[in-house]
Each structure stands twice: as structure tokens, then as C-alpha cells.
Amino acid sequence: MNPADISPEGPPRYVIGVDVGTGSARAGLFDLSGHMLSVAKRDISLFREAGSIVEQSSTEIWNAVCAIIREAVSSAGVDPAQVVGLGFDATCSLVVLGEGGKPLAVGPSEKAERDIIVWMDHRAVGQAERINAMGHEVLRYVGGRISPEMETPKILWLKENRHETFASAWQFFDLADFLTWKSTGDLSRSTCTVTCKWTYLAHEARWDASYFEAIGLGELANENFARIGTEIVEPGTRLGRGLTDEAANAMGLKPGTAVAAGMIDAHAGGIGTVGIGGKPAENLAYVFGTSSCTMTSTVEPVFVPGVWGPYYSAMVPGMWLNEGGQSAAGAAIDQLLSFHPAAGDATEAARLQGKSLPVFVGEVAAGMVSKPSEVVELANGLHVVPEFLGNRAPFADPHARAIVAGLGMERDIDNLVALYVAGLCGIGYGLRQIIETQAKAGASVERVVISGGAGASSMVRQILADACGKPVIAPAADEPVLLGSAILGSVAAGAFPNVRNAMEALSSVASVYAPAGGGVAETHAHRYQAFLSLQDVARRIR
Ligand SMILES: Nc1ncnc2c1ncn2[C@@H]1O[C@H](COP(=O)(O)OP(=O)(O)O)[C@@H](O)[C@H]1O
Ligand SMILES: O=C(CO)[C@H](O)[C@H](O)COP(=O)(O)O
């Protein structure tokens, strides 16, 4: 299908957005006004081992993606020939393939199907520290410090610990780029992935060979970056000749269907939300899933120590991006609840209602108060700094750890609820700290536009608004992250001239959660000071 074939007349056309998160892959089928007709989901495995090792399988993910695309199309009863575009987003995990696209084992299991080092894998903390000690110029564009969650420390880890894998790797991909290559055979990388996670300098359209030489990965530069990306294109760019016969067959779509260069999952959430009001520079995109990401767009680059970026054209084309967040967000709430003596009973009660534990506990909390903002009183005396997986921003400190203060001998569900609320407040104070740090550096925002699985609850949105002090906007789209990747697919298909146009046309506000004033605001101000003190004391103890 050529872009020119899409006309307002003729049969309706559809696009598919695919989102591969940490725990599941989802596909949504959208019409060209941004309405989602169907969604399909598959859970994906995570393999964990000692030493912060977390791995996945690219084969499993690819099979899941093909299956959910088929399911989304058939459950909507749409003719595959009417699907004109496909967009992908995925976690920023590292996929390692040998000759012929063969999966290579990335860890001690020696299992080739474990060929992905997941973004949250912290095996490369030592490599990241050594890179940071070198202080290379490119680090200015990742908030001053490389994170072990980024790809160059991980590849260095492979070279130093699994030399055979490193030497025989044919391609190192960010997961979204792997998916577009599998779909089209096109090895182009997206400016989103390589700028945010690989130190590509999109504002100068180049890699910096001296960085790779300095850190001990000179061979990647000597090969002209053939294993990490020679063609770098903006998200939404139409790749290759669209779907290959093999991929189309696996997905139940037509060969040649347009496939867009993809994005990291959080950034797709940004694309699906920050167009609201036509003012991307005023909107902070907050994607609250397993991790959380804060994404702030500016016209000029703003350097905020400890906040990733500034990245050029990594999310909104032509704008700079600062990206912060918490490495464990939904995952921190899960971890916190799992420690509590009432977790077993509550999990069983949640299961009987077909809900996850945090959703169940959140609903119990909402039922205990007359107004959502009052839930903060349930957490009276309990304080959580939820940094189970380090502080992503504004300290860029992978060694930070969580703090829970104010625990008693309680073992009941009410106390579990209190812990849940305190954990969410802690997430909100982390958000407030990032917003304040960025504002001091010159990147202030007016509102937070929320997406992600944990951001779907209205009580969660209200707690975040109260805790961070900014209005939280819920977009009209039920699945803003999927809408973001569908937007990419629609641009590749030629339905919109560019991503910015599509963003503004397809995103709108559903509801606004204004921060509460009065006593609630005072309580949060007080709790925020406690959060800062606890965080500071923990840092000093270490
Ligand atoms: N109401 C809720 N309150 C707190 N956490 C929640 C809630 N709903 C979902 N979560 C958490 O959000 C995370 C899943 O987010 P989601 O965006 O669906 O996944 P992914 O990050 O894999 O894309 C899980 O950690 C889950 O426990
Ligand atoms: O680092 C990230 C974005 O830059 C994300 O945290 C990562 O991609 C995981 O996303 P999720 O929490 O939605 O599974």
C-alpha cells in the first residue's frame, strides 16, 4: 500500500499499534481518527537470576507480537487489506543476534533463547561507573551520567564477560528496532532508541567514534557502526518495502503493509499524550507502568544534571527531550505489597475478583474515604521512598535503595492499604522532585499528562496530582501508549504528513485531576519534606 492510496473516500483504513512492555505485549487496532476498535494481549516471560540479571527471549516476544496482531484484527472483524500501517514501541532492552539472526545467549544460563538483556538488568553497573569516571563529552547528552540501563555499558559487559557472544554478534538492537527489522528486513534504527540509550548524537546526526574508543568498544566504531546502526531515521519513517512476505504471513496481514520506525515504550506514551492542547512544551508526559518515565519537551536544549538528555528529536520531532522517572514504579508498589503479612490473603481476595493485587488494594482504599484526595490520611505516619531499583532521576544513582519508615506490628488489610497509599505518595514525591529540579534548570511544565497501566486508575491520578502539585490530565485515549505507536504507523502509511500533525489531531483531554488545596496540600507538603529528609539520610548513610 502506497501512502498515496489513502484517500478520505474509499473503504475505511486502520492502523495497528504494538506495545511491548516489561510484562506483556499488546496490540491495538485503530481507525484513522484515533479510536481503538480492539486490543489483544499476551504476557511475556522474564528470567531473573542473582546479580540483577533479567533476561527475555526475542523469539517469544516476536511470536507473541504476531499472535496479538492476528487476534486484534480478527476480533475487530476487519479485512487485513484495510490495515495500512503498523507501528511498534518496546522497552529499551538489548537484543543480541548472531549470523542469520540467530539468538545468542547473553548470560550464564547459556540458553540461546535468552538473548535479551532487559532494561532493568543492572549487571553493567561497574561498566557504567567506569564510563562515568572518564567523563566523555557525549555524557552531556545523557544527563551527565550514563545509566547501567543503557546499551553501551551492557555491550561492554558482554565484551568483558562473554567475549564469544560479543565477537560473534551480528547485530545489537534496541527491542523496538529488532521488531521493525523482523517485520521488514530493514536494519534502520530509530533516532528515539539510539539517541536515548546508545549515545547517538541526533542533533549532529552522528555517532562519536572517540566515545566508543575511550570506553573500550573501539571495534564498533572501526566497523563503521555496522552492528549498532548505520541508517538512523526518525520514528514514523516508512521502513523497507513494508512487511515482508514471511512477517505478513505470521501476522495475518498483507505483504507490503507500511511499517514505521519505532520508539521506546515510554516515548510512545509521550507521543500519544503530549499533543494535548497543541502545546507539547507545557505538558510533562508521565508514563506510569513497571517503571515510570517523565518526558519534557523543550525548543532549546536544557541540561539538567541527573535527568537523561537533552535528546534531540527523540520523541517530538524537532524538539529536545529531558527524560527522568523512577526505575521501579509499578514494580515498587508490587514489591512493597509483597512484603506485608496481609499480602497472601489480599492476593487471594483479588484473585477471586479477577484483579491484580494493586488494583484490588487501590479499590479498597478508594472505598474507605468519601473523596479521593482524603486517602492520604490512611497513610498517616507511614513514609516510603520507593527507590528499590535506584534513583533514575534527579540523582542518576543506581545504588540508591528503598526506605519504609513508620512500620508497626499491624498485620491487617487496612495496614496493607496504608502502605500502598504511602508507596503511591512516594512515587508522587519523586515526580515532584523531578519537576522542581527541571524547573530550576529552565524546563518548567504546567501539567502532567498520564499514561501507562498504573496510571489508569482515577485514584492513582488524584494522589499523584496532590503529591506533585500539578494538574494531572487523563487523555481521552483508553490506551495512550498504543495510540502512540499507532500514530507512528499512521504516519508511515501516509495518513498524516508527520508525527506532530498526527499527535495534535489524535490526542484530547478526558478529565483533569486538579491538586487539592487546604489541609490535603499541607499534609502533602509535610510528607514531601519527610521524603526529602529520608532520601537524604539514606544517601548519607551509604
Ligand atoms: N491501580 C494500580 N495501582 C498501583 N500499581 C498498579 C495499578 N495498576 C497497575 N499497576 C502496576 O503497573 C505495572 C504494569 O504497568 P503496565 O503499563 O501495564 O505494564 P508495562 O510496564 O509492562 O508496560 C505493574 O507493576 C502493576 O502492578
Ligand atoms: O527506560 C525506559 C524508557 O526510557 C523504560 O523504563 C523502559 O522502557 C521500561 O518500560 P515499562 O516500565 O513501561 O515496562
TrEMBL record:
<feature type="domain" description="Carbohydrate kinase FGGY N-terminal">
    <location>
        <begin position="14"/>
        <end position="272"/>
    </location>
</feature>
<feature type="domain" description="Carbohydrate kinase FGGY C-terminal">
    <location>
        <begin position="284"/>
        <end position="493"/>
    </location>
</feature>
<dbReference type="Pfam" id="PF02782">
    <property type="entry name" value="FGGY_C"/>
</dbReference>
<dbReference type="Pfam" id="PF00370">
    <property type="entry name" value="FGGY_N"/>
</dbReference>
<dbReference type="InterPro" id="IPR018484">
    <property type="entry name" value="FGGY_N"/>
</dbReference>
<comment type="similarity">
    <text>Belongs to the FGGY kinase family.</text>
</comment>
<dbReference type="InterPro" id="IPR018485">
    <property type="entry name" value="FGGY_C"/>
</dbReference>
<protein>
    <submittedName>
        <fullName>D-ribulokinase</fullName>
        <ecNumber>2.7.1.47</ecNumber>
    </submittedName>
</protein>
<dbReference type="InterPro" id="IPR043129">
    <property type="entry name" value="ATPase_NBD"/>
</dbReference>
<dbReference type="InterPro" id="IPR000577">
    <property type="entry name" value="Carb_kinase_FGGY"/>
</dbReference>
<keyword id="KW-0418">Kinase</keyword>
<dbReference type="InterPro" id="IPR006003">
    <property type="entry name" value="FGGY_RbtK-like"/>
</dbReference>
<keyword id="KW-0808">Transferase</keyword>
<dbReference type="GO" id="GO:0019150">
    <property type="term" value="F:D-ribulokinase activity"/>
</dbReference>
